[in-house]
Amino acid sequence: MVLAGIGSISRTMAQNRLLVFFRENVAERKGIITEKFFEQDELLIPKIETENELIKRKLKELEDTCASNNIIKICMKELGMKRANKFGWPNVYSFTKAMGELQIAKLRGSLPVIILRPTIILSTCKQPFPGWIEGIRTMDKLIISYAIGEIVSLPACLDAAVDGIPGDMVVNAMLATMMTNCSHPNSMLPIYHVGSSSKNTLRFRLISETSYKYFSMHPFTRKDGKLITVRKPIFFSKMFFCIYMVLRYKLPLQVLLVVATLFSSQILKNQYIKHNQTYNHVMLMAKAYIPYTFMLGRFDDTNTEILRMRMNNEDKAMFSFDAKCINWDQFLMDIHIPGVIKYGLNG
User: How many beta carbons lie within 10 A of that of residue 302, not counting itself?
Assistant: First the structure.
């Protein structure tokens, strides 16, 4: 049903010269985040030409020093994160998406344009079948890392709003907005938030509880055949998480390194390297997910709700994107987590 709809809509889009800009929302704000287009001065984002010149200069500088491809990759990632953080964005992804939105508005000319902003896209609820997903995405990396025993503690607020929406609902909303806007040009940019936080909030607490319950019942298996027993995760404020990780893991690791060096033990050195890599990975993940695990804002979806209410009953049934109908506990336990393992991890 969804695939057939995409084909039909694609033809209509071509005939009416409709451009849909698909941007994923980022959770770094508090309060109500409205469905409006933000101008460049409101977002405090530099011109894309400025960023392009900066990138070119940095690349030339690295190439002139004969840096390896791996070093170039690391340095460019660091530059991207530095620039994003400088202008108040938590990561390069959200930074460049906002820049892209500005470019679409600038270059669209007379084309009718829709900006669709889905929140965290989860596995499908119904179509093409429950639980379908490609790859491990966003919060799923945390879920899988927890399942394999890599992450036990995390900086997070249990009342944080993890604004997620099933992937098929995003597609349905996209089709509905295209049908509504493709027949006439628009001087204003129609903005549609497709999420759940304003009407059916998924809180981080439920994700934690459901993950513990699921992997207690369906544990992963180690390479040696032993089952991985998950423990209830521990959550801290940002500051206490760093203190805990240093005292609980980093200091013992440093002691291990000293002992390995004193006794020239390659076995101990290998253990240090392995566990230190895990420690660094956990710290990087924690830093990357802080904007989401402490998200207290809500994405207003008034425009999307008005669109849904204007649809007839037949279209509502065919192109469902009403987040109020989601039972989050049942969805996570019976659909999403099994789907992530079956299709995202092993697909």
Answer: 13
